[in-house]
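Look at one such:
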Amino acid sequence: MTGEREEPARARELEGEREDPAREREREEPARARELEGEREDPAREREREEPARARELEREREELARARELEREREELARAQARVVRALVAGGAVPGGFDPGRLRAQAAGLIAKRRSIVARIRPDTALAAGPDLPAEFAAYARARTAPPPSYRADADDFAAWLRERGRLPAERPPRRAGRWWSRLLP
């Protein structure tokens, strides 16, 4: 008999281990809810944790802005330095510090010679009018200007006007009236 009593007791014990699935869920849900609550902190704690990250982000943005301002100042200083060099090369301005005055004068003379040869090709009448004095005339014209014109054509026309003012180039003929195409062949 003891064996028979043990069987139902053992069966009840096993049944206790294996509860009804609904009861198991009821028991597990509060445990799972507590577990999830541990994962999800209250909003105050989350803000405390996020604030240092936001502060680091703001600090990075401030540093980037400071670097951008510094770069802008450096660009402006570079532009001013380049303008001083261009003024020295083209307009006869003072030689900026750190440059060899002799080499800068040689480079400026080379740029004027280049402009002179292009002007002579664009407007050969100016080269003929200036004759052997072309280098001296063009150098005087170039020194009289604060900056070269925006194009070679404008430079050539301005040099022709400069020669005309000094009586070295005759007045321009009025443009011919457009006629028939064959009128260009007549003398």
Observations:
- Residues 77 and 160 are 37 Å apart (CA to CA).
- The chain has seven helices and no strands.
- Helices lie at 2-17, 21-39, 43-90, 101-122, 124-130, 134-144, 152-165.
- The two ends are 149 Å apart (CA to CA).
